[in-house]
Amino acid sequence: MDNSMFFGIATLGYIFAMIAYITYLVSKNRYVGLVATYLTIVSFAFHTIAFLMRWYEGYIMGLRSFWRPPVSNLYESLVFFVWCLMLGYIIIEFRYKNRAFGAFVTPIAAMILAFIEMTGLSKEIEPLVPALQSNWLLAHVTMSFISYAMFGLSFATALIYLIQKTEKKTEPAYIFWTFSVGLMIVILLAMAIDYLKFHVIATSTEAMKKYLFRATFKSNSQTIVALSWFSALSIIGFVWMFGNYLKRIINTFNLSEQMLDDITYRAIAIGFPIFTLGGLIFGAIWADQAWGVYWSWDPKETWSLITWFVYAFYLHARLMRGWRGKKVAVVAVVGFVVVLFTYLGVNLLLSGLHSYV
């Protein structure tokens, strides 16, 4: 048995947990909720074992130092991000004794895992590229993804807050959250269609660019492209039209607005200094050692700085300007969208020095 088998079990477990959490959200069946929690914990255990096995396997193969964890390429960084995200979620579920959050956190994990399977990212343990053969790898990369996980949790709680607090369909906050949820559904479906059509085997960023959304929005057939956009707008419109039903379901769990706002703030308050130190400062020091310059305005660096500004604005608006409620919740949701673009969008749409991650 190797780490891939354990990762596969964890992946299936998370997907079933997502289905169970969503079912629990709709049915409020206590036993379904327990199943969702147990699936999440067991999947997380397999995930942890797989991560440690991969770390050890790379070490005994002589390909990596023991102090350089398996976070050196896109596949490894994605599975580590999901690990951090699910660890944070498990802590929140037991701390606040509420499973409703799972229906919003597990789809993020499912989207990432679907991305891995759809693109067929190489899971082979490979030697570190020269730029990654540094002691800064442990600090810079792991701290960056821990902060990303915190921002992902804040996204989920901020989104729930917006769903609870909006009333009218013409309200900007209502339009914003229904568009966000609808877009997430569209992306998941488009990635699933890509996988079903191509069963993609992609081992590089260029291959991902070639196949991602090729069955829908980037199809060679203009008819399929038109149908894809029509379907996407229809799905978003459907979420907008019936969003109040989701609001009613969530309201039955009696989630305190203060609790949601508090979790969002705490997650960002923890993630922001970790990202500042590990993502920006340690990254700049490592860049100087690797490339001879602290800052080169590489696309990944630029978007990391934009991410920092978004969350700095959130904390400034809340602490100094006294913003509360829907305004800062919108900033938290936008912030995680920027995080996803920084992490994945830059690699797929732009090019730069960070193309290996």
Number of strands: 0
Largest sheet: none
What fraction of residues sit in β-strands?
Answer: under 5%
Span from first to last CA? Answer: 27 Å
The parts where pLDDT drops under 50 for at least 5 residues are none
Order of helices and strands: HHHHHHHHHHH
Structural class: mainly alpha
- Anisotropy-based shape: globular
pLDDT averaged over residues? 83
The count of domains is 1
What's the total helix number?
Answer: 11
Helix content: over 70%
Rg calc: 20 Å
Structural summary, described in words:
76% of the residues lie in helices and 0% in strands. The chain is mainly α and 357 residues long. The protein contains eleven helices and no strands. The radius of gyration is 20 Å and the shape is globular.
Q: In a nutshell, what does this entry contain?
A:
This protein has 357 residues and is mainly α. The protein is built from eleven helices and no strands.
Short descriptors:
11 helices; mainly alpha; 357 residues
List the helices and strands and how they pair.
Layout: H1 3-27, H2 30-60, H3 74-96, H4 102-119, H5 136-165, H6 172-198, H7 205-211, H8 222-251, H9 257-291, H10 299-319, H11 326-349
Helix pairs in contact: 1-2, 1-4, 2-3, 3-4, 3-5, 4-6, 5-9, 5-11, 6-8, 9-10, 10-11
